[in-house]
Specification:
Elements (H helix, E strand, L loop, with lengths): L1 H17 L15 H6 L1 H6 L4 E13 L2 E8 L2 E8 L6 H7 L5 E10 L5 E12 L15 H6 L1 H7 L1 H23 L3 E2 L5 E2 L11 E4 L4 E5 L4 H9 L4 E9 L11 E10 L3 H20 L3 E4 L2 E4 L6 E3 H9 L8 H10 L10 H12 L8 E7 L15 E9 L2 E2 L2 E4 L4 H16 L10 H8 L5 E7 L1 H7 L17
Parallel strand pairs: 3-5, 6-10, 14-15
Antiparallel strand pairs: 1-2, 1-4, 2-3, 4-5, 7-9, 8-9, 10-11, 11-19, 12-13, 15-16, 16-17, 16-18, 18-19
Helix pairs in contact: 6-7, 7-9, 11-12, 13-14
Length: 482
């Protein structure tokens, strides 16, 4: 069936070429966007001047001496009327136009008897002949994988999908503008690293032919940006892609966009104050309001965000102190929760595993979860009030983390000890434990100023859209068709 439709369109393509017309011209005539025509229709239609519009045919209705089609560009949609005796080469156009074709039409604006804004075409030209028919039933397609694989069709047929990415552009540009206005310098750091660091994650590995060396794709932006603090920069940020070879779910992707910034002579308290302002301004600009809906629940971003103590919430949910508990006690707790913990997991990873099951899902309204156990965060500074916890925070809403901030660890001796502890966990079987980065420790030994650091991924945007994160990525990775 599809093959027959393609053959028919190829026949029409041949007819267009035989007529001497170019079905794929280099240049086309276009006076104004369709959205502008629709918005200023009254003014433009009074002039009775010819206007040239371009767009894709989204519907095509042949009624003998009349043809009606809906023409759409990225700004809007308008009805085009082809009339025998008015439209040049009417009979030929009638035999070669299909839904999905791109047209350039020239004519006069008018209102139909039903008061529909329209353009009566005096001439028309196919400027890109569609050889495959657009799907008729797309919104009912249940195979999400197929929708994502042919995402371009989703954009053609679903205005809501296109709108998401207009908002996403606003989301990132707003964050960038605010940071630059606050005096942060935007930089770009390498994607390839000899030692992947800055996060607990399994990396992708590649080979660099020119250097005949294996490298890893970065799992974080953190360590190079900290080296810039060591080098004398005081406020730096990067918005870039990072890569983690882990599972796909509603909140996780393997390659995604992340913002990280580092701010000398500030701590996590300063950072929290700034982040609350940054998030509220970004959400207001992206959504147009400070309330959103997530899985049927109203989320109020506009209120003051309370601070929630990690240890207190952990004890409340599990009747177990994460700081005082032994690794064995935490392991047993994870087993009772059916978390299937791996034998090689250390205390910090077990705490994180239990917390994500028992504490995080209950934090629905925006808040800051603060002061995590030192074992759970290898790169944050210990609290002066309690050396068993670190000055770390997560903005949390909708039962998930929407960023991570620290008072950054700048003691090279403490940093080396924590890296070495992580290496022991790697040897015990934890593939996501961090590696000892000798170059970074050496850089720290030259001295890094006290600083606050923060990172947030595009998960925040997906939460604002109430969509799985894959659906807020233009072309997410999918399993190739066999």
């Amino acid at each position: 069936m599809l093959e027959d439709l393609i053959k028919e369109r190829l026949r029409k393509l041949s007819l267009i070429k035989k007529s001497g017309a170019n079905p794929y011209p280099v240049k086309v005539k276009r006076d104004v966007s369709i959205g502008k025509v629709v918005a200023d229709f009254s003014k433009l239609s009074k002039s009775k001047k010819n206007l040239s519009l371009t767009g894709r045919v989204m519907s095509f209705r042949n009624q003998g001496g009349l043809i009606f089609c809906d023409l759409e560009d990225s700004s809007g949609r308008i009805q085009i009327v082809f009339r025998k005796g008015i439209t040049g080469n009417f009979n030929f156009l009638k035999g070669v136009i299909d839904r999905g074709d791109f047209l350039s039409v020239t004519g006069v604006l008018f209102l139909t008897k039903k008061r529909e804004k329209s353009l009566e075409a005096k001439s028309a030209q196919i400027i890109s002949k569609s050889l495959r028919p657009l799907p008729i039933e797309w919104f009912g397609l249940e195979d999400k994988e197929e929708k994502l694989r042919r995402r371009y069709l989703d954009f053609v047929l679903n205005k809501e999908s296109r709108e998401i990415f207009k908002r996403k552009a606003i989301f990132w540009s707003t964050i960038r503008e605010i940071l630059i206005k606050e005096g942060f310098l935007e930089v770009e750091t390498p994607v390839f690293e000899s030692v992947p660091g800055g996060a607990d994650a399994e990396p992708f590995k590649t080979h660099y032919n020119a250097l005949d060396t294996d490298f890893f794709l970065r799992i974080s932006l953190e360590l190079p940006l900290k080296k810039l603090l060591i080098g004398g920069f005081e406020k730096v940020f990067e918005i870039g892609r990072i890569f983690r070879n882990e599972g796909i779910d509603r909140e996780h992707l393997q390659d995604y966009t992340q913002l990280e910034f580092y701010w000398a002579y500030r701590d996590y308290n300063d950072c929290m104050k700034f982040i609350e302002k940054l998030y509220k301004a970004t959400i207001k600009k992206t959504i147009g309001a400070l309330t959103t809906t997530f899985q049927g629940k109203k989320i109020n971003w506009g209120k003051r965000w309370p601070r929630v103590d990690f240890t207190r919430e952990f004890i409340k949910a599990n009747n177990l102190d994460p700081i005082l508990a032994t690794r064995e006690e935490l392991f047993k707790k994870a087993e009772t929760l059916d978390l299937n913990p791996q034998k090689g997991l250390g205390k910090g990873r077990l705490i994180d595993l239990i917390y994500k099951k028992t504490v995080r899902p209950n934090l629905i309204q925006p808040c800051f979860l603060v002061d995590l156990p030192v074992e759970a965060v290898p790169l944050a500074k210990r609290s002066t009030d309690n050396p068993n916890v670190v000055e770390c925070f997560h903005p949390i809403a909708c039962g998930t983390e929407l960023g991570t901030g620290y008072s950054e660890l700048n003691d090279p001796i403490d940093q080396r000890a924590r890296f070495e502890e992580q290496m022991k966990l790697r040897k015990a079987g934890d593939k996501e434990a961090q590696r000892l980065d000798e170059e970074f420790v050496e850089a720290l030994e030259y001295g890094m100023p006290p600083a606050a650091g923060f990172g947030v991924s595009e998960r925040l945007f997906s939460i604002l859209m109430d969509k799985p994160v894959r659906e807020t990525v233009v072309f997410p990775q999918v399993r190739p068709k066999k």
